C-alpha cells in the first residue's frame, strides 16, 4: 500500500508541472527585464563584450602575476561559501531548464540508445522494434522519471562546475589550482549526487528497455524487500558520471578560452553550439563502455526469478546480476566491440543535438542571470562601493600581465 502511494506521488503529473513551472518561473525572473533590443530573444542575448568572450568563466586557471588585478577581500570562509552558492544558482537553474527541454524533445533517442546498450542492435533495428511494440508512447516510456531526473542531474552538473570552481578559486589553499583539478572535484560531486538518483534512473531505464512488464518485475522485487535492485549499476553510474563529466567540461572550458576560436566564430551561441558538439564527442567516446555495463546491469535486475539470460542464469537471484555477469552477457553476445561500441554512434549523434540544445539555453540563461544579479553578488562579496564603470561591477577578475580582460571569476 505504501509502495502504491509512493508511486502515485512520483507519477503525479502535478509534481512535474510544479517542477517545470518552478524552473521556468525562476528563469523568467532573470530574463524578463532585458533590454528592448533582445526582449524574448533567448538565442541572442545582448551582453557586454567580456561576457561574450567568456562562455565558461568558472574554471579559468588563476595564476597571479604582478600585473594582475584580482579582488582579495574575500577571505572569510562563510563569505566564500555564499559567493559559491550564488554562482551555483546562476549556473544551475538554466541547466535545469535546458535539461527539461532535452527530455521533452529528444527522449525517444535516449530510449533507442538504452535499448542498443542492452541488446546491441543497430539504430534502425532498435527504433523499428520499439515503434512496432507500442508506437510513440513506447519511445517515451519512463518520461515521468526522466522529467524528474534530467533537470536535477543537469542542475548538479552545472552548479558543481560553476559553484565548486568559484569556491576553489577563492580558497587560499586551492586558489592556484588549474582547471583540471577544479573540474575533477566538480565531477566527483556530480557522481556522488547522481548515486542518490539511482532509483529514479533504474525505473526509467527499465521502462525504456523492457517496457511496462519489466517495470512490474522490478516492482515485484521491491515489494519483496529487495530495494537494492533500485541501485543496480550505481557504481558504474558514478564512474561513468565522473569520466563523462570531466572530459565534457574540461574540453568545453578549454575551447571556451581559445582566443582563436573566438575570433573565428564571433557569434556567441554558434560558438557555444560547436564547443558543445566537440565536448560531447570526447565525453561519449571515453565513457561509453561504462554506460553499456551500467544499463545492462539495470536491465538484468528486472528479470524474473525464474528467467535465464544469454550468459548463464543471472536473473534467478533476487538482487540481479553482478558486474562480472553483466560484462559476460555483453561479451558473449557482441564481444569487446559490443562492450565499447554498443550505441556509441547513436549516442554521439543524440548527444550532439542535446549538447547543442543544453549549451545554447544554459549559457543564454546563465549569462542573463549573471548580468541581472551583479548587485546581489556585490552584497555577498561585502562590497559597498558605488562603482559605475561596467567592469568594476564584476569583482574577482583574472587579468593577464597586459591588463586585458582575460577571465571573469566573480
UniProtKB/TrEMBL annotation:
GO cellular component labels: membrane
Where is it predominantly found? membrane
Q: List residues traversing the bilayer.
A: 88-109, 229-250
Signal peptide range in chain numbering: 1-30
Q: Where in the cell is it found?
A: Membrane
Q: Which keywords annotate this record?
A: Membrane, Signal, Transmembrane, Transmembrane helix
User: According to the UniProt record, where is the region Disordered?
Assistant: 373-410
Has UniProt tagged this entry with the keyword Acetylation? no
Matching entries from SUPFAM superfamilies are given as: Mitochondrial carrier
Supply the name of the protein. Mitochondrial carrier
User: Which species is the source of this protein?
Assistant: Cyclotella cryptica
Task: List the taxonomic lineage.
Answer: Eukaryota, Sar, Stramenopiles, Ochrophyta, Bacillariophyta
Amino acid at each position: 500500500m505504501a509502495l502504491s502511494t509512493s508511486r502515485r506521488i512520483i507519477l503525479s503529473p502535478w509534481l512535474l508541472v510544479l517542477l517545470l513551472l518552478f524552473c521556468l518561473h525562476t528563469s523568467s525572473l532573470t530574463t524578463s527585464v532585458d533590454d528592448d533590443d533582445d526582449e524574448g530573444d533567448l538565442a541572442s542575448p545582448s551582453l557586454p563584450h567580456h561576457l561574450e568572450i567568456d562562455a565558461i568563466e568558472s574554471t579559468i586557471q588563476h595564476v597571479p602575476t604582478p600585473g594582475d588585478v584580482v579582488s582579495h577581500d574575500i577571505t572569510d570562509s562563510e563569505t566564500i561559501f555564499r559567493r559559491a552558492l550564488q554562482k551555483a544558482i546562476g549556473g544551475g537553474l538554466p541547466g535545469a531548464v535546458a535539461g527539461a527541454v532535452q527530455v521533452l524533445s529528444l527522449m525517444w533517442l535516449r530510449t533507442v540508445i538504452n535499448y542498443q546498450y542492452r541488446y546491441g542492435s543497430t539504430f534502425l533495428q532498435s527504433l523499428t522494434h520499439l515503434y512496432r511494440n507500442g508506437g510513440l508512447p513506447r519511445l517515451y516510456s519512463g518520461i515521468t522519471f526522466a522529467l524528474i531526473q534530467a533537470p536535477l542531474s543537469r542542475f548538479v552538473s552545472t552548479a558543481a562546475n560553476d559553484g565548486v570552481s568559484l569556491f576553489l578559486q577563492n580558497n587560499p589553499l586551492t586558489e592556484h589550482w588549474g582547471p583540471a583539478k577544479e573540474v575533477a572535484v566538480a565531477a566527483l560531486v556530480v557522481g556522488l549526487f547522481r548515486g542518490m538518483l539511482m532509483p529514479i534512473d533504474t525505473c526509467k531505464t527499465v521502462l525504456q528497455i523492457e517496457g511496462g512488464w519489466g517495470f512490474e518485475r522490478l516492482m515485484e522485487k521491491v515489494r519483496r524487500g529487495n530495494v537494492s535492485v533500485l541501485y543496480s549499476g550505481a557504481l558504474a553510474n558514478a564512474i561513468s558520471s565522473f569520466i563523462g563529466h570531466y572530459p565534457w567540461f574540461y574540453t568545453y572550458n578549454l575551447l571556451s578560452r581559445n582566443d582563436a576560436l573566438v575570433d573565428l566564430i564571433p557569434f556567441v551561441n554558434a560558438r557555444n553550439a560547436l564547443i558543445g558538439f566537440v565536448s560531447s564527442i570526447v565525453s561519449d567516446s571515453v565513457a561509453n563502455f561504462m554506460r553499456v555495463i551500467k544499463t545492462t546491469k539495470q536491465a538484468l535486475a528486472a528479470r524474473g526469478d525464474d528467467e535465464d539470460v544469454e550468459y548463464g542464469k543471472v536473473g534467478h537471484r533476487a538482487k540481479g546480476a553482478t558486474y562480472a555477469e553483466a560484462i559476460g552477457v555483453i561479451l558473449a553476445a557482441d564481444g569487446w566491440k559490443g562492450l565499447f561500441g554498443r550505441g556509441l554512434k547513436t549516442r554521439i549523434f543524440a548527444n550532439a543535438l542535446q549538447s547543442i540544445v543544453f549549451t545554447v539555453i544554459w549559457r543564454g540563461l546563465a549569462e542573463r542571470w549573471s548580468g541581472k544579479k551583479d548587485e546581489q553578488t556585490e552584497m555577498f562579496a561585502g562590497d559597498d562601493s558605488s562603482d559605475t564603470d561596467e567592469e568594476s561591477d564584476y569583482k574577482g577578475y583574472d587579468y593577464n600581465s597586459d591588463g586585458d580582460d582575460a577571465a571573469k571569476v566573480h
